[in-house]
């Protein structure tokens, strides 16, 4: 969705090209019968209705009343009384949970391969990333903390996939960005030197597991010494904490819980102390309860976003968000999880940077549309809040997009529509490259829509 008039004129596509011809499979097909290098008649502007894939991870919210994922998926959720958590809705081509065409059930990946990636994804995107979408789009409904984790860079991802393909299922890196839909709480990145010293002074349970020698090094560190020494000390101390024996960790967490419960009767606990008590209830005797003291505690308001690069520690805690990332499912875990923990890998891969993460608030690109542009070339996200009776035109771009209607209702218009193009909560659309889309809001409330696409900087 290029915001520049140059990009729009280069694509040469408008909404007034023609009424077009409707041809099955829920496609929206333009009236253009030219062929591209011997292919079947042009279908490159076909807008597809998609069905996303739901992931029922244990940390997800249960029931369609409580879970945005269940509500958007529209598959019964709590109405059917199955009691399952509805954690993530995936929209993309990753083989772990690929999207499919709503009308036929054919996977989006198969459709792209059959129709031609260069046509549907755009030549530059297909040349750079092959026949798959370079991004994976998700909605998360978080009731319980996710694991303390990090995502590998490309080099490490290739190595992990080669060594442990059952655990690390692809060879791609996984930078990601979360845009809060509700208040969204996160642990992300290491706290600064001063806060770290405060932890060692005031949390004896952490100090004991870190050990006197490592604690002394950190306590003597200077805040502005270039960071190299501090990072080395931090890595050593954090590794010692994370690799402590299960018995030692269990005893330390028990002491921490008992001490804070007693102290809460005579003073107000800090937000971090309140957090670790809630984490202990979710994951008793887990080293992640203690590790939380090492990380920045971030609260995102709706519309605020957080970008997490390779090898940065984080853990989503609660709330709901849309998330976009490079097409990968590689996660290195080390705490707050019943899943496989690869502690040594995580401790060795982290950057150990100490700074509070930047909160992204997006940049307006036109009326009603805000864009979040991360450093990664694979993706960007647009947030569209469209009042009833208003419309917005998403200009054609040389790459693919996925649109998700989060709330409200309206109409989607492209060059030609098989049906009336009605769009309501939970509808997902694949928009091929070089395709202009017009969105009209209707109904009593605001229409909230998100678009994921290839980062605009990739085309500049």
TrEMBL record:
InterPro entries: Man6P_Isoase-1 (IPR001250), Mannose-6-P_Isomerase (IPR016305), Pmannose_isomerase-type1_CS (IPR018050), PMI_typeI_C (IPR046456), PMI_typeI_cat (IPR046457), PMI_typeI_hel (IPR046458), RmlC-like_jellyroll (IPR014710), RmlC_Cupin_sf (IPR011051). The lineage of its organism: Eukaryota, Viridiplantae, Streptophyta, Embryophyta, Tracheophyta. The active site is at residue 333. GO terms for molecular function: mannose-6-phosphate isomerase activity; zinc ion binding. Pathway: Nucleotide-sugar biosynthesis; GDP-alpha-D-mannose biosynthesis; alpha-D-mannose 1-phosphate from D-fructose 6-phosphate: step 1/2. It comes from Oryza meyeriana var. granulata. NCBIfam families: manA. This is Mannose-6-phosphate isomerase. Binds 1 zinc ion per subunit. Residues 372-416 form the Phosphomannose isomerase type I C-terminal domain. Residues 47-190 form the Phosphomannose isomerase type I catalytic domain. Its cofactor is Zn(2+). Pfam families: PMI_typeI_C (PF01238), PMI_typeI_cat (PF20511), PMI_typeI_hel (PF20512). The keyword Metal-binding applies. GO terms for biological process: carbohydrate metabolic process; GDP-mannose biosynthetic process; response to cadmium ion; response to L-ascorbic acid; response to zinc ion. It catalyses: D-mannose 6-phosphate = D-fructose 6-phosphate. Keywords: Isomerase, Metal-binding, Zinc. Belongs to the mannose-6-phosphate isomerase type 1 family. Its EC number is 5.3.1.8. GO terms for cellular component: cytosol. Residues 209-294 form the Phosphomannose isomerase type I helical insertion domain. Zn(2+) binds at residues 149, 151, 176, 314.
